[in-house]
Amino acid sequence: MTDITKLMRPHLVKVTTYHGVDPTEELARLAGIKPEDVTRLNANENPYGSPTSVTDALKDIAVHLYPDPEQRKLRAKLAEYTGQPVERVMAGAGGDEIIDLLLRLFTEPGQKLIDCEPTFGMYAFCARIADASVVMVPRKDDWSIDIEGVLDAIDDDTRLIFLASPNNPTGNLLTEQEARALLDTGLILTIDETYYEFCGKTLCHLLDEYENLVILRSFSKWAGIAGLRVGYCIGSETMIRHLMDIKQPYNINAAAEAAAIAALDNRDEVLERAHILVEQRKRLEATLNELDGVYFYPSEGNFLLCRFVGRSAREVYEGLGKRGIFVRLFEQDRLEESLRISAGTPEQTDRMIEAITEILSGSH
Ligand SMILES: Cc1ncc(COP(=O)(O)O)c(C=O)c1O
Description:
Aspartate Aminotransferase, domain 1; single chain
């Protein structure tokens, strides 16, 4: 028998994979409850989904035809939404695909990406797949970027820096001053604004000054279409032209394209639901403020990083799990006491508040 692993690219044979979130049915099976009793607050999804004005657009799709490889209609809408020329925008199958494309475009094996943990794991994952090296410059205690540390870490092999703003899971923003300091290095800086619609804060205006900046956005969170996989990026014309050249021709499927366009056409209604999530995050914050044994970090996203004192995050995670509530637990040492809780509907927030109050008062 041929050992086919010997034929594989060596760096991929034992690659550390990325574990995405399990489907609701699997969460229910693990918790021994019914799928309808699962409260899913572990992936920063929009529990409202998208309104019928968006889902209706899925009814008339010509599924027998290939979608537009040039993404003409969607790019035109994105250009209008972002106030950028159409030549500066491109859609991807989720922000995830664009992260992967950036690694493919800018790194050769062994070249470096700078990553600032704790942050979204997909930057390091895509680097591993591309055989790029990840140089980790940990965030400071207040989760801001160690700019000096990043500048010191740069050498001739460094190509890219990835920073999320708001950052997942810490919720804080990158400042303009920090972004400029990094852009002035001339390296490719990706500012990942996946959670932009929850805070309205962007560094898009820097695109006019810096050819090496790329802004990443997503429809997964605010627009409630994570299952359809649509994200986009804004960059210089040159950057976008080259990304368009290397993407899979039909990366945005017909359903994804129709839903993303409908979300932009009905943006007020879609955004209303995103704003409810921000209200619910604030409600959760107000309750946690009253409880002993838990702190949270200020967040600009639809999630809250909570730190528990005197008990491990796993203990709280398991207590919530027993009640059918799923949140995000982390493996990193620095987040050993922390859980990330996604903002939910008012009913989900009621359930969360009741459960945390019970757990912190000693009932498991
Ligand atoms: C910071 C950040 N960037 C990108 C993504 C990927 O989003 P998408 O669903 O568009 O691939 C996520 C998803 O959790 C995220 O938190």
